[in-house]
Amino acid sequence: MLATPAGFVPLQAPQPATRTRFFVFRGDQLLLRASDLSLPEDEVDLLEALGAPPREAYPVGLLGEYYCCAAAVDAQISAVEGYVFSGLRPLFGALDEQLLSVAGRAFQITEWRRTHRYCGVCATPMQVVAGERCLRCPACGHLAYPRISPAMMVLIRRGEEILLAKHAATRTNRFTALAGFLEAGESIEDAIHREVYEEVGLAVKDLRYFASQSWPFPHSLMIAFTAEYAGGDLALDPNEIADARWFGPGEELPEIPAGISIASELINAHLPRGHARG
Questions:
Q1: Whose CA is closest to 244, among 234, 255, 253, 252?
Q2: Residue range 183-211: mean pLDDT, rounded
Q3: How confident is the model at residue 278 (pLDDT cuts 50, 70, 90)?
Q4: Got the DSSP string for 205-267?
Q5: What is the per-residue pLDDT across 51-63, written as a single tens digit (0 to 9) for each?
Q6: What are phi and psi of 144, to 5 degrees?
Q7: Rounded CA gap, 254 and 272, in Å?
Q8: Looking only at Cα atoms, what is the longest distance across the chain?
Q9: Where are the alpha helices (DSSP H) in 88-223?
Q10: What counts of helices (H) and strands (E) characterise the chain?
Q11: pLDDT at 18 (0 to 100)
């Protein structure tokens, strides 16, 4: 599962280091070497050529001997020869998991800086607050921290069966656990009960925390639970759910999430008897 690397040290200010890795984003696409999908390292001239001078890069943290920093380039910029821009999702399984985790963090920092250049109250240009990940308006004092959008995920169990659903927005035939964003004033538990009832018409009980995962698309925090079926018949919201079914021992499973997502971990940890863990 995508997780912060052991030993990673977040930084709010630039720090000298023996080597530097640059996470350069064009929108939500990361700059990589075309030959081996590696990151630019210590290549000041490259960043200058892309219009993202290193002195303006955002500190991200230390990973081993590397100082990691992030930069954003204009949407119209083309990759220089030998490099390509790629979205993060296609890099699952292709890029080292530690680097992918830091890339997700770097993207969220870059997106926060991009979307908070001006005060949301009075439109004054924002300034960096020393010592913390924060922007402050010098005119009215408004503070802006990186946005994190919490979302619940829940795998419902009924005896030896699990409920898997195909979301209406997906372009694949993949089935997964139910998920949804929290609303203002809700606890995670409140959101689970509400989303389950709204999406599939069921009541649940015995919620148990499983794990959480940062999900940089663009700034979510996925918080996963299991829950036991408490009642109701499947009644799908067609705007959210294209299909949902119970799967038990011996039944053929549909395509489920693969790779390093928390959905994959959650489902594989609770597969019906007779199915191998992924």
A1: 234
A2: 98
A3: low
A4: EEEEEEEEEEETTTTEEEEEEEEEEEE------TTTEEEEEEE-TTSPP-----TT-HHHHHH
A5: 888 888 999 999 9
A6: -130, 115
A7: 13
A8: 65
A9: 97-115, 188-200
A10: 4, 15
A11: 84
